[in-house]
Design brief:
single chain; about 140 residues; mainly alpha
Length: about 140
């Protein structure tokens, strides 16, 4: 369990330094915000949550890439080899990476829920559908 926590902390710090990975979590809520404010709010025919729901489906599809990018960077920097030598199990490594990616994606999801103006019940449904979509996407690959 300590190795999962250590890898989680390492990945959160690495994600904060890696602009390309961090942008993946910031750009989707930003685009949803811009499109909602400038297109949906001024048009009575478009629901305010339309762009949030559209961008969140795109966001779910892109959540696998940050984990792949993290693993590839660890291989390139040879830190993955160091972790194996240190006795970190593959499951602990993947749980640490997945936990870091999931934690950062929660903040993006909260931002999307706020932008969409969901009520508490609507937000819980939004998160449940998002979670189910992510599970479907990761198991279909």
């Amino acid at each position: 369990m300590r190795s999962v926590k250590a890898i989680f902390i390492k990945q959160v710090k690495d994600m904060a330094k890696n602009l390309s990975v961090l942008i993946m979590f910031v750009i989707v809520p930003f685009i949803a915000f811009v499109m909602t404010e400038f297109i949906a709010r001024g048009n009575n025919d478009i629901p305010d949550s339309m762009f949030v729901i559209t961008m969140s489906s795109i966001f779910v599809g892109t959540l696998v890439q940050p984990a792949c990018t993290i693993i590839a960077e660890d291989r390139e920097k040879k830190s993955l080899r160091f972790l194996i030598i240190a006795g970190v199990k593959p499951l602990a490594y993947l749980l640490g990476i997945g936990g870091a990616t999931f934690t950062v994606s929660i903040f993006s999801s909260l931002a999307l829920g706020y932008i969409g103006g969901f009520s508490q019940d609507e937000f819980m449904t939004f998160m449940a559908v998002r979670k189910a979509s992510l599970e479907f996407y990761t198991h279909s690959k």
